[in-house]
């Protein structure tokens, strides 16, 4: 059930140690399923709210988080907003020995009030908090300087549909597009009709965007250069 705007905002409630963010959200596919979500400096804890005893809590370490984004629903009539976190924790391989990093996606629906703008603002707050906390958990190596990539970073992707044995567009849709979405990097896709782009034009595009990449057969044709 949607909450009235006059009611207190549960997602801004803090309990326990300072720095713990707590909220209650619904499942992205079934609004009858609710979860309690808490964010600490090192982990995102998720617990299904149920009347049955023995509830199981799932904890995702932020060191395994590669990104989090906020977005509206696919239906324009949906007043709720969503935030999705992407993790790559170590998990046991299926039908084989050993462990490997496997992709896990956690998505929650924010519908605290009837105002879609307010719900999206709340989802963005959670997504930003998760990104900032996960950045602090990134592994550190001696001699390596870490700095946050400036945002917003816009990227233009040039794809020649005839390159890569005619599979360049499919490769972008199947691999690259998902990674850009997970990293919350806005991009503009341009389908090229010519095998070459004038160097001056490439410089103009690179100046307007944070980077320009081109999907071709040759790595030397990558365009993120002067």
Automatic annotation (TrEMBL):
Give the GO molecular function terms: lipid kinase activity
Gene3D superfamilies listed in its UniProt record: Probable inorganic polyphosphate/atp-NAD kinase, domain 1
What is this organism's lineage? Eukaryota, Metazoa, Chordata, Craniata, Vertebrata
A cellular component term (GO) from this record?
membrane
Q: Kindly give the InterPro entries that the UniProt entry links to this protein.
A: ATP-NAD_kinase_N (IPR017438), Diacylglycerol_kinase_cat_dom (IPR001206), Lipid_Phosphate_FormReg (IPR050187), NAD/diacylglycerol_kinase_sf (IPR016064)
**Any idea what this protein is called?**
DAGKc domain-containing protein
Start and end of every DAGKc domain? 150-192
Choose any GO biological process term that the UniProt entry carries and state it.
negative regulation of apoptotic process
């Amino acid at each position: 059930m949607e909450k009235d705007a006059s009611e207190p905002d549960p997602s801004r409630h803090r309990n326990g140690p300072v720095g713990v963010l707590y909220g209650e959200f619904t499942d992205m596919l079934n609004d009858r399923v609710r979860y309690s979500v808490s964010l600490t400096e090192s982990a995102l804890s998720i617990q299904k709210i149920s009347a049955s005893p023995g509830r199981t809590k799932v904890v995702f370490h932020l060191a395994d988080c590669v990104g989090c984004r906020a977005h509206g629903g696919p239906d324009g009539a949906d007043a709720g907003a969503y935030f999705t976190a992407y993790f790559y924790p170590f998990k046991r391989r299926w039908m084989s020995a050993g462990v490997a990093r496997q992709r896990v996606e956690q998505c929650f629906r924010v519908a605290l009030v009837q105002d879609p703008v307010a719900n999206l603002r709340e989802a963005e707050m959670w997504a930003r908090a998760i990104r900032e906390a996960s950045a602090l958990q990134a592994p550190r190596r001696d001699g390596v300087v870490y700095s946050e990539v400036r945002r917003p970073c816009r990227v233009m992707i040039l794809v020649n549909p005839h390159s890569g044995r005619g599979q360049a567009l499919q490769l972008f849709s199947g691999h690259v597009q998902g990674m850009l979405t997970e990293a919350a990097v806005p991009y503009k896709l341009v389908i090229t009709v010519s095998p070459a782009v004038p160097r001056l034009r490439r410089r103009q595009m690179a100046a307007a965007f944070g980077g320009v990449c081109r999907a071709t057969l040759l790595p030397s044709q990558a365009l993120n250069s002067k």
